[in-house]
Amino acid sequence: MKKPESADSHKLIAIVEDDPDVARIIEQVLGDFAFRTVWCRSATDLLRRIRSLSPDLCIIDLGLPDMDGIEVMQRVRAQSPCGIMILTGRAHVSDRVMGLELGADDYMLKPFEPRELVARVRSILRRRETAPEHRPALREIAEFGGWRFNTGNNTLLAPNGEELVLSTSEAELLKVFVSNPNRILQREQLMGSRDLAPTDRSIDVRISRLRRKLEPTAESSAFIKTVYGAGYLFLATVSWPSENPG
Hints:
This protein is of the alpha/beta class. It has 8 helices and 12 strands.
């Protein structure tokens, strides 16, 4: 019996999976919740069709026959604003951290629980609907402590004029910080709605990398403070010049 439709019903999910049986299960689970799906048997199939399909989310297996899933994800990121979930049998922490660092919205292991898959798909779609790139372009440039962050193209201009290009994961993290300055943010808030296991340290890895770019020397201002037992605090006065033209 079909489940009740939600606000995300009828959104298109591209499933990139070479195993027909696994693809069929994913299609059935998502179809029960009124999602539309399209199955791509290989990376080549997806990349050839992604612009015409314009999916809302891609579910990508890492073990594809023609291309590593991490590379597929990077190519999708360069061509489409869609969400990305990695669904794989690879349980190595290095694969998980690399996938999240390079821009995946979530990482889920096979075998999966159908209700959890649907919940995570919905979570990604909700986060992307409310993410800065889906909001009006008015709040595009954030300035703080002499730094200038362009949320539209993920570039960061240092006080000395040097331009840094952030990774997708670093930029998403900084967008949350500049939108919530001087507020303690829990690790779960910084990762979005995705549930975190107590041992999941991927957010700490992201923060460490962002810190190294924002605080390259001992004399640099320490913007990201760790509040032990609570989360992280972005200590800065943030202004959005585009909100106050002229």
